């Protein structure tokens, strides 16, 4: 998680509503239109079903209560407004309480194509549809509970599991490779890149994932696939912390990316 942000989340007013400007709604509208086109034939069925359920407005940023009504009904989840950046403690605490943190700001037009920080478009378009799926929701809840209870050095391992599933997860289906990770689904560049033949795509083994280093500022050189969304439910029932202990014993894999240039900030 980055240490500072140039963005500030918008505070809800007395009615609990966030007042978005015309320009902010316009940015949302253009992001949604572009990404809906981009994910055709690429997003998994569960995501598309979830998208229908949450019934996202295309012309304006939705208010969080609109999403909460659907999430509450489907899986008992909620979205919670948070500042642009929150620490791991707060992140895990929210997930452990079935609250998905949503930073209530949207990217500026200058950063329309790429934004490293998660804005409201990433959080809602990328993640909320999947949170209507019971297996995905259970996995995310379990992850929050484990992370909240875990020590700092174990959280780093758990973070890899989240990264390669909730953020950058792929699924092998009878129709071909499909995406369920919100980090990909909210990024036109990465959605295309997954199918470019460039990245390595391996079947997900929890122990392997826990041992795989990643960088947040590049296209992922490696993705892991599940075979069905219920695989996430099965993982949520595993003794994940035992796998973390094993991963710590075995150590990390060699990174598949060059070291970050220390001169670049
Ligand atoms: Fe995310």
Automatic annotation (TrEMBL):
<dbReference type="InterPro" id="IPR005960">
    <property type="entry name" value="Phe-4-hydroxylase_mono"/>
</dbReference>
<feature type="binding site">
    <location>
        <position position="122"/>
    </location>
    <ligand>
        <name>Fe cation</name>
    </ligand>
</feature>
<dbReference type="InterPro" id="IPR001273">
    <property type="entry name" value="ArAA_hydroxylase"/>
</dbReference>
<comment type="pathway">
    <text>Amino-acid degradation; L-phenylalanine degradation; acetoacetate and fumarate from L-phenylalanine: step 1/6.</text>
</comment>
<dbReference type="InterPro" id="IPR036951">
    <property type="entry name" value="ArAA_hydroxylase_sf"/>
</dbReference>
<dbReference type="GO" id="GO:0004505">
    <property type="term" value="F:phenylalanine 4-monooxygenase activity"/>
</dbReference>
<protein>
    <recommendedName>
        <fullName>Phenylalanine-4-hydroxylase</fullName>
        <ecNumber>1.14.16.1</ecNumber>
    </recommendedName>
</protein>
<dbReference type="GO" id="GO:0006559">
    <property type="term" value="P:L-phenylalanine catabolic process"/>
</dbReference>
<keyword id="KW-0560">Oxidoreductase</keyword>
<keyword id="KW-0585">Phenylalanine catabolism</keyword>
<comment type="similarity">
    <text>Belongs to the biopterin-dependent aromatic amino acid hydroxylase family.</text>
</comment>
<dbReference type="InterPro" id="IPR019774">
    <property type="entry name" value="Aromatic-AA_hydroxylase_C"/>
</dbReference>
<feature type="binding site">
    <location>
        <position position="127"/>
    </location>
    <ligand>
        <name>Fe cation</name>
    </ligand>
</feature>
<dbReference type="Pfam" id="PF00351">
    <property type="entry name" value="Biopterin_H"/>
</dbReference>
<keyword id="KW-0503">Monooxygenase</keyword>
<keyword id="KW-0479">Metal-binding</keyword>
<dbReference type="InterPro" id="IPR018301">
    <property type="entry name" value="ArAA_hydroxylase_Fe/CU_BS"/>
</dbReference>
<feature type="binding site">
    <location>
        <position position="167"/>
    </location>
    <ligand>
        <name>Fe cation</name>
    </ligand>
</feature>
<dbReference type="InterPro" id="IPR036329">
    <property type="entry name" value="Aro-AA_hydroxylase_C_sf"/>
</dbReference>
<keyword id="KW-0408">Iron</keyword>
<feature type="domain" description="Biopterin-dependent aromatic amino acid hydroxylase family profile">
    <location>
        <begin position="1"/>
        <end position="265"/>
    </location>
</feature>
<dbReference type="GO" id="GO:0005506">
    <property type="term" value="F:iron ion binding"/>
</dbReference>
